[in-house]
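Predict the holo structure. Ligand: NAP.
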Amino acid sequence: MGAVVITGGTDGIGRALATVYLRRGHDVLVVGRSTRKGQEFITAATDLGAGDRAHYVTADLSRIGENQRLIQAVTTAFPVVDVLVLGARYHRSTRTVTSDGFETNFALFYLSRFLLSHGLVDPLNRAENPVILNFGGAGQTGPVRWDDLQLEHRYHGVDAMGHSARLNDLLGVSFTTIHEDSPIRYVLNHPGVVVTSFAGEYDAVTAAQVAHLKQVGKTVADSVAQILPYLDPPGTGRLTAVLEGVRVPLEPSIFDHGAAARLHEVTERLLVKPRDQLEFIGRTAHPA
Ligand SMILES: NC(=O)c1ccc[n+]([C@@H]2O[C@H](COP(=O)([O-])OP(=O)(O)OC[C@H]3O[C@@H](n4cnc5c(N)ncnc54)[C@H](OP(=O)(O)O)[C@@H]3O)[C@@H](O)[C@H]2O)c1
Protein backbone atom coordinates (compact mmCIF):
# COMPACT_ATOMS: atom_id res chain seq x y z
CA MET A 1 0.00 0.00 0.00
CA GLY A 2 1.41 3.40 -0.99
CA ALA A 3 1.37 6.69 0.89
CA VAL A 4 -1.18 9.46 0.80
CA VAL A 5 0.07 13.07 0.71
CA ILE A 6 -2.36 15.84 1.66
CA THR A 7 -1.59 19.55 1.48
CA GLY A 8 -3.98 21.39 3.77
CA GLY A 9 -4.21 18.06 5.60
CA THR A 10 -3.99 19.69 9.01
CA ASP A 11 -7.50 21.15 8.85
CA GLY A 12 -10.94 21.01 7.26
CA ILE A 13 -11.63 18.61 4.41
CA GLY A 14 -7.96 17.64 4.05
CA ARG A 15 -7.74 16.62 7.69
CA ALA A 16 -10.90 14.49 7.39
CA LEU A 17 -9.51 12.76 4.29
CA ALA A 18 -6.28 12.13 6.19
CA THR A 19 -8.24 10.24 8.86
CA VAL A 20 -10.05 8.17 6.24
CA TYR A 21 -6.78 7.03 4.67
CA LEU A 22 -5.17 6.35 8.06
CA ARG A 23 -8.11 4.08 8.92
CA ARG A 24 -7.61 2.28 5.61
CA GLY A 25 -4.02 1.47 6.55
CA HIS A 26 -2.03 3.99 4.47
CA ASP A 27 0.92 6.04 5.55
CA VAL A 28 -0.45 9.59 5.52
CA LEU A 29 1.65 12.74 5.25
CA VAL A 30 -0.15 16.00 5.99
CA VAL A 31 1.33 19.39 5.15
CA GLY A 32 0.52 22.76 6.70
CA ARG A 33 2.19 25.69 8.40
CA SER A 34 0.94 25.20 11.94
CA THR A 35 3.14 22.90 14.01
CA ARG A 36 0.38 22.76 16.63
CA LYS A 37 -2.13 21.38 14.11
CA GLY A 38 0.47 18.94 12.80
CA GLN A 39 1.11 17.68 16.30
CA GLU A 40 -2.63 17.36 16.93
CA PHE A 41 -2.89 15.20 13.83
CA ILE A 42 -0.13 12.92 15.08
CA THR A 43 -1.76 12.68 18.52
CA ALA A 44 -5.17 11.83 17.01
CA ALA A 45 -3.53 9.22 14.78
CA THR A 46 -1.81 7.70 17.80
CA ASP A 47 -5.19 7.46 19.53
CA LEU A 48 -6.41 5.55 16.46
CA GLY A 49 -3.45 3.17 16.80
CA ALA A 50 -1.93 4.61 13.60
CA GLY A 51 0.72 6.91 15.05
CA ASP A 52 3.52 5.09 13.24
CA ARG A 53 1.83 5.78 9.88
CA ALA A 54 1.05 9.46 10.50
CA HIS A 55 3.52 12.06 9.25
CA TYR A 56 3.59 15.81 9.26
CA VAL A 57 5.71 18.31 7.33
CA THR A 58 5.66 22.03 8.10
CA ALA A 59 5.84 24.03 4.90
CA ASP A 60 4.64 27.36 3.59
CA LEU A 61 3.55 26.19 0.18
CA SER A 62 3.22 29.72 -1.17
CA ARG A 63 7.03 29.55 -1.39
CA ILE A 64 8.57 27.81 -4.41
CA GLY A 65 11.49 26.42 -2.40
CA GLU A 66 9.14 24.91 0.19
CA ASN A 67 7.34 22.96 -2.53
CA GLN A 68 10.67 21.68 -3.79
CA ARG A 69 11.67 20.68 -0.28
CA LEU A 70 8.36 18.82 0.10
CA ILE A 71 8.81 17.01 -3.20
CA GLN A 72 12.27 15.96 -2.10
CA ALA A 73 11.00 14.79 1.30
CA VAL A 74 8.13 12.81 -0.20
CA THR A 75 10.19 11.12 -2.91
CA THR A 76 12.85 10.19 -0.34
CA ALA A 77 10.39 8.81 2.23
CA PHE A 78 7.80 7.18 -0.03
CA PRO A 79 8.68 5.29 -3.23
CA VAL A 80 4.96 4.89 -3.95
CA VAL A 81 2.25 7.54 -3.55
CA ASP A 82 -1.33 6.34 -4.06
CA VAL A 83 -3.13 9.62 -3.52
CA LEU A 84 -2.08 13.26 -3.69
CA VAL A 85 -4.61 15.75 -2.32
CA LEU A 86 -4.00 19.43 -3.14
CA GLY A 87 -6.06 21.32 -0.57
CA ALA A 88 -3.98 24.09 1.00
CA ARG A 89 -5.76 27.44 0.83
CA TYR A 90 -5.68 30.75 2.64
CA HIS A 91 -7.90 33.73 1.89
CA ARG A 92 -6.46 37.24 1.72
CA SER A 93 -8.74 40.24 1.23
CA THR A 94 -5.65 42.36 0.57
CA ARG A 95 -3.21 41.50 -2.20
CA THR A 96 0.21 40.42 -0.98
CA VAL A 97 3.32 39.19 -2.76
CA THR A 98 5.62 36.35 -1.65
CA SER A 99 9.37 36.81 -1.35
CA ASP A 100 9.60 34.91 -4.66
CA GLY A 101 7.66 37.80 -6.21
CA PHE A 102 4.36 36.01 -6.85
CA GLU A 103 0.90 37.11 -5.76
CA THR A 104 0.39 34.97 -2.67
CA ASN A 105 -2.89 33.29 -3.55
CA PHE A 106 -1.68 32.55 -7.09
CA ALA A 107 1.44 31.00 -5.54
CA LEU A 108 -0.37 28.87 -2.94
CA PHE A 109 -3.53 27.94 -4.76
CA TYR A 110 -2.07 27.45 -8.24
CA LEU A 111 1.75 27.38 -8.49
CA SER A 112 2.13 24.98 -5.55
CA ARG A 113 -0.39 22.61 -7.12
CA PHE A 114 1.40 22.83 -10.47
CA LEU A 115 4.75 22.05 -8.83
CA LEU A 116 3.45 19.18 -6.70
CA SER A 117 1.35 17.61 -9.47
CA HIS A 118 4.29 17.43 -11.87
CA GLY A 119 6.95 16.96 -9.20
CA LEU A 120 5.37 13.86 -7.68
CA VAL A 121 4.62 12.03 -10.92
CA ASP A 122 7.32 9.39 -10.33
CA PRO A 123 6.05 8.00 -6.98
CA LEU A 124 2.46 8.30 -8.21
CA ASN A 125 3.26 6.37 -11.39
CA ARG A 126 4.44 3.45 -9.24
CA ALA A 127 1.03 3.09 -7.58
CA GLU A 128 -1.60 0.64 -8.79
CA ASN A 129 -4.42 3.20 -8.99
CA PRO A 130 -2.86 6.63 -8.51
CA VAL A 131 -5.06 9.68 -8.19
CA ILE A 132 -4.57 13.42 -7.69
CA LEU A 133 -7.40 15.38 -6.09
CA ASN A 134 -7.16 19.09 -6.83
CA PHE A 135 -9.83 21.36 -5.39
CA GLY A 136 -10.34 23.38 -8.55
CA GLY A 137 -13.33 25.22 -9.94
CA ALA A 138 -14.87 22.20 -11.68
CA GLY A 139 -15.99 24.58 -14.40
CA GLN A 140 -17.85 26.92 -12.02
CA THR A 141 -15.58 29.94 -12.28
CA GLY A 142 -15.06 32.84 -14.67
CA PRO A 143 -12.56 33.43 -17.46
CA VAL A 144 -8.78 33.40 -17.20
CA ARG A 145 -7.34 36.91 -16.83
CA TRP A 146 -4.51 36.31 -19.28
CA ASP A 147 -3.32 39.92 -19.17
CA ASP A 148 -3.19 39.96 -15.37
CA LEU A 149 -2.70 36.42 -14.06
CA GLN A 150 -1.46 37.66 -10.70
CA LEU A 151 -4.27 40.16 -10.32
CA GLU A 152 -2.26 43.33 -9.95
CA HIS A 153 -5.33 45.27 -11.03
CA ARG A 154 -8.77 44.93 -9.48
CA TYR A 155 -7.70 42.43 -6.80
CA HIS A 156 -10.48 40.97 -4.69
CA GLY A 157 -9.81 38.07 -2.32
CA VAL A 158 -12.87 36.04 -3.33
CA ASP A 159 -12.17 36.58 -7.04
CA ALA A 160 -8.53 35.63 -6.49
CA MET A 161 -9.56 32.23 -5.13
CA GLY A 162 -12.03 31.71 -7.95
CA HIS A 163 -9.41 32.67 -10.51
CA SER A 164 -6.88 30.22 -9.11
CA ALA A 165 -9.56 27.53 -9.10
CA ARG A 166 -10.06 28.22 -12.83
CA LEU A 167 -6.29 27.88 -13.39
CA ASN A 168 -6.37 24.55 -11.56
CA ASP A 169 -9.06 23.28 -13.93
CA LEU A 170 -6.67 24.02 -16.79
CA LEU A 171 -3.83 22.40 -14.84
CA GLY A 172 -5.88 19.21 -14.76
CA VAL A 173 -6.30 19.37 -18.55
CA SER A 174 -2.62 19.99 -19.31
CA PHE A 175 -1.44 17.47 -16.72
CA THR A 176 -3.41 14.62 -18.28
CA THR A 177 -2.24 15.68 -21.74
CA ILE A 178 1.44 15.97 -20.85
CA HIS A 179 1.49 12.72 -18.88
CA GLU A 180 -0.68 10.95 -21.43
CA ASP A 181 0.79 7.49 -20.81
CA SER A 182 0.56 7.77 -17.03
CA PRO A 183 -2.07 5.85 -15.05
CA ILE A 184 -2.60 8.89 -12.80
CA ARG A 185 -6.23 10.03 -12.65
CA TYR A 186 -6.75 13.74 -12.06
CA VAL A 187 -9.90 14.72 -10.18
CA LEU A 188 -10.98 18.36 -10.02
CA ASN A 189 -13.42 18.85 -7.20
CA HIS A 190 -15.53 21.80 -6.14
CA PRO A 191 -17.03 20.74 -2.81
CA GLY A 192 -19.58 23.57 -2.54
CA VAL A 193 -19.81 25.40 0.77
CA VAL A 194 -18.35 23.30 3.57
CA VAL A 195 -18.07 24.39 7.19
CA THR A 196 -14.34 24.50 7.84
CA SER A 197 -11.95 27.00 9.39
CA PHE A 198 -12.09 29.19 6.24
CA ALA A 199 -8.57 30.21 7.22
CA GLY A 200 -7.65 33.71 6.12
CA GLU A 201 -7.44 37.44 6.66
CA TYR A 202 -10.80 38.98 5.81
CA ASP A 203 -12.12 42.49 5.38
CA ALA A 204 -15.36 43.23 7.26
CA VAL A 205 -17.68 42.54 4.32
CA THR A 206 -16.08 39.20 3.45
CA ALA A 207 -15.89 38.21 7.13
CA ALA A 208 -19.67 38.69 7.37
CA GLN A 209 -20.17 36.58 4.24
CA VAL A 210 -17.95 33.84 5.67
CA ALA A 211 -19.88 33.89 8.96
CA HIS A 212 -23.03 33.29 6.93
CA LEU A 213 -21.42 30.48 4.92
CA LYS A 214 -20.44 28.80 8.18
CA GLN A 215 -24.13 28.66 9.05
CA VAL A 216 -25.42 27.29 5.77
CA GLY A 217 -22.57 25.04 4.60
CA LYS A 218 -22.52 21.27 4.64
CA THR A 219 -20.49 19.32 7.17
CA VAL A 220 -16.99 18.13 6.42
CA ALA A 221 -18.22 14.54 6.79
CA ASP A 222 -20.92 15.09 4.13
CA SER A 223 -18.36 16.68 1.84
CA VAL A 224 -15.92 13.78 2.23
CA ALA A 225 -18.72 11.34 1.42
CA GLN A 226 -19.23 13.23 -1.88
CA ILE A 227 -15.52 13.29 -2.69
CA LEU A 228 -14.37 9.74 -1.96
CA PRO A 229 -16.32 7.85 -4.67
CA TYR A 230 -14.34 9.73 -7.31
CA LEU A 231 -10.99 8.97 -5.70
CA ASP A 232 -11.52 5.29 -5.16
CA PRO A 233 -10.83 2.94 -8.07
CA PRO A 234 -11.85 2.32 -10.75
CA GLY A 235 -12.58 6.04 -11.17
CA THR A 236 -14.12 7.76 -14.14
CA GLY A 237 -11.27 8.28 -16.59
CA ARG A 238 -8.05 10.29 -16.63
CA LEU A 239 -9.70 13.64 -15.96
CA THR A 240 -12.86 14.09 -13.91
CA ALA A 241 -14.57 17.25 -12.71
CA VAL A 242 -16.98 17.00 -9.80
CA LEU A 243 -19.29 19.58 -8.29
CA GLU A 244 -20.73 18.69 -4.89
CA GLY A 245 -20.62 14.99 -5.63
CA VAL A 246 -22.01 15.26 -9.17
CA ARG A 247 -19.85 14.73 -12.22
CA VAL A 248 -19.59 17.77 -14.48
CA PRO A 249 -19.24 17.34 -18.27
CA LEU A 250 -15.79 18.34 -19.55
CA GLU A 251 -17.16 21.18 -21.66
CA PRO A 252 -14.44 21.90 -24.28
CA SER A 253 -14.86 25.66 -23.97
CA ILE A 254 -13.99 25.46 -20.27
CA PHE A 255 -11.65 22.47 -20.10
CA ASP A 256 -9.98 23.99 -23.11
CA HIS A 257 -6.84 22.21 -24.35
CA GLY A 258 -5.47 25.30 -26.10
CA ALA A 259 -5.88 27.46 -22.99
CA ALA A 260 -4.41 24.69 -20.83
CA ALA A 261 -1.31 24.43 -23.04
CA ARG A 262 -0.95 28.21 -23.02
CA LEU A 263 -1.19 28.35 -19.23
CA HIS A 264 1.34 25.54 -18.87
CA GLU A 265 3.78 27.44 -21.04
CA VAL A 266 3.22 30.73 -19.21
CA THR A 267 3.67 28.96 -15.87
CA GLU A 268 6.93 27.36 -16.94
CA ARG A 269 8.19 30.74 -18.06
CA LEU A 270 7.24 32.31 -14.72
CA LEU A 271 9.06 29.56 -12.88
CA VAL A 272 12.17 29.83 -14.99
CA LYS A 273 13.37 32.68 -12.79
CA PRO A 274 14.95 30.38 -10.21
CA ARG A 275 15.78 27.98 -13.06
CA ASP A 276 18.61 26.24 -11.23
CA GLN A 277 16.12 25.08 -8.59
CA LEU A 278 13.41 24.07 -11.01
CA GLU A 279 15.04 21.75 -13.47
CA PHE A 280 12.55 18.99 -12.71
CA ILE A 281 9.69 20.96 -14.25
CA GLY A 282 11.29 20.85 -17.66
CA ARG A 283 12.01 17.17 -17.19
CA THR A 284 8.46 16.16 -16.29
CA ALA A 285 6.77 18.52 -18.70
CA HIS A 286 8.71 17.29 -21.70
CA PRO A 287 9.44 13.62 -21.13
CA ALA A 288 12.06 12.19 -23.47
N1 LIG B 1 -14.70 25.04 2.68
C1 LIG B 1 -15.35 25.41 1.58
O1 LIG B 1 -16.50 25.89 1.64
C2 LIG B 1 -14.70 25.27 0.25
C3 LIG B 1 -15.39 25.75 -0.89
C4 LIG B 1 -14.79 25.62 -2.14
C5 LIG B 1 -13.54 25.03 -2.24
N2 LIG B 1 -12.90 24.58 -1.12
C6 LIG B 1 -11.56 24.02 -1.28
O2 LIG B 1 -11.39 22.84 -0.52
C7 LIG B 1 -10.01 22.76 -0.09
C8 LIG B 1 -9.97 22.53 1.40
O3 LIG B 1 -10.57 23.66 2.00
P1 LIG B 1 -10.92 23.74 3.56
O4 LIG B 1 -12.05 24.72 3.68
O5 LIG B 1 -11.07 22.37 4.09
O6 LIG B 1 -9.59 24.42 4.13
P2 LIG B 1 -9.30 25.02 5.58
O7 LIG B 1 -10.10 24.32 6.63
O8 LIG B 1 -9.40 26.50 5.51
O9 LIG B 1 -7.79 24.60 5.79
C9 LIG B 1 -6.80 25.16 5.00
C10 LIG B 1 -5.57 24.30 5.04
O10 LIG B 1 -4.56 24.90 4.24
C11 LIG B 1 -3.34 24.96 4.98
N3 LIG B 1 -2.59 26.14 4.56
C12 LIG B 1 -2.98 27.44 4.54
N4 LIG B 1 -1.98 28.22 4.09
C13 LIG B 1 -0.95 27.42 3.82
C14 LIG B 1 0.37 27.63 3.35
N5 LIG B 1 0.82 28.87 3.03
N6 LIG B 1 1.18 26.56 3.20
C15 LIG B 1 0.76 25.31 3.50
N7 LIG B 1 -0.47 25.04 3.95
C16 LIG B 1 -1.32 26.09 4.12
C17 LIG B 1 -3.81 25.08 6.43
O11 LIG B 1 -2.78 24.60 7.27
P3 LIG B 1 -2.15 25.48 8.46
O12 LIG B 1 -3.28 26.15 9.16
O13 LIG B 1 -1.42 24.45 9.25
O14 LIG B 1 -1.24 26.44 7.75
C18 LIG B 1 -5.00 24.13 6.45
O15 LIG B 1 -4.58 22.80 6.64
C19 LIG B 1 -9.33 24.07 -0.51
O16 LIG B 1 -8.61 23.89 -1.69
C20 LIG B 1 -10.51 25.00 -0.75
O17 LIG B 1 -10.21 25.99 -1.70
C21 LIG B 1 -13.45 24.69 0.11
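The chain has one domain: 3-285. The first helix runs from residue 12 to 23.
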